[in-house]
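User: Please predict the structure of the protein below. I'd like the answer in structure-token form so I can feed it into my own downstream comparison script.

Assistant: Understood. Taking the following sequence of 400 residues as input:
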Amino acid sequence: YLGLDPACTSCHKDVHRAADQAGGAAVKACTDCHDTGKWRPAPLFVHEKTGFPLTGKHQAVDCAKCHVPADDSPSLVFAGLSHTACTDCHKDPHAGALGPDCRQCHVIEGWLLIQGDAFDHSRTRYPLLGRHAAVTCAGCHSQERKKPDFTACSSCHGDAHDSAGLARPRLMQCEECHTVEGFKPAGFPLSKHAETTFPLSGAHRATPCNACHQPLVAEAANLVPAHGACTDCHQDPHLGQADKYMTDRGCVSCHDQESWRGVAFDHGLTGFALEGRHQATACLTCHPRAESGVGFSGLAKNCAGCHNDVHKGQFADKLTADGQAVACDRCHVTVDWLAEKFDHDRDSSFALKGGHERVACKVCHLPVETGNERLLHFKPLPAACKDCHVNVSGSEGANR
């Protein structure tokens, strides 16, 4: 080193062109930033002491990204760089539409981190309404979709109803049923349903939507359930026993959509026509409901199949033609339960003649106690006069 200039520039070229960049100001010595260990990065340089301290994601940026050479010179420019606004280094992706100050919305910790309170999304072409207002920025503005499309709901939301699989593209016109306030409940009025292939009428109008439109996948409702027959939605409570009475109209042969309890059925088709008080009897009285459904076949057609024997076997010898039960219809009719067909002279062994014709039935047929019930006694009864009449002598007896 004897006799040589100790300044770095006496041997090394000033790659920073310090004199030119300083513009007449004092030039820093190389040793303010460098040492003899290595030239890059400058181990003694502290950016925080400059007019632009590095914070946030700026700390990870390569020096050459900001300090680019001027013109065709290979030297990096360090002094005199403008840094008053973000756009001095960064391109404005919004083309000035959101104002000149990027820091109103963005932070230096990351460009996708938005100061939500500071950013007014209503200034954009897509104001955030309803539940969209609570969605995080990254939920729509991801690294892959910095400028997401918003022309249709499907731009962001998946096809929950599989419209492509159902070949029903109209199903993805989400706004016909949904609003930005929430996906549930769906707003599909009856007037819209009337335009479908299954207009709702009768009791169907009061049926909850999810009773028919049950989810196919996850929580997405099936918007095109089968509806060609009642059994597509309803179980057959008759277990197929009513099929032989149906026409090509199916269940509507007997039922209508106003109420399933209202039945229009010709009972004469069964071989047991309803007459008299049977016509006013509720169906479930004879066709009781069971866990498996309401049965029709195998039911008895004789009186004993439904009615208890109020005579407690007194007429057990009076059988039906098939010999299976008591023939109640020998005496009774279905208009009422009185024995209007009974002829005492024909059907009993004691013909009513003379004064007997005017005697009330209960005078001879007295009730007897059988457990907790009172039973009218019809047979056997004594038939001799003395069994009913007292032998009184004298004039008093003659008067009797």
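That's the full token string. Residues 395-400 have pLDDT under 50 and may be disordered.
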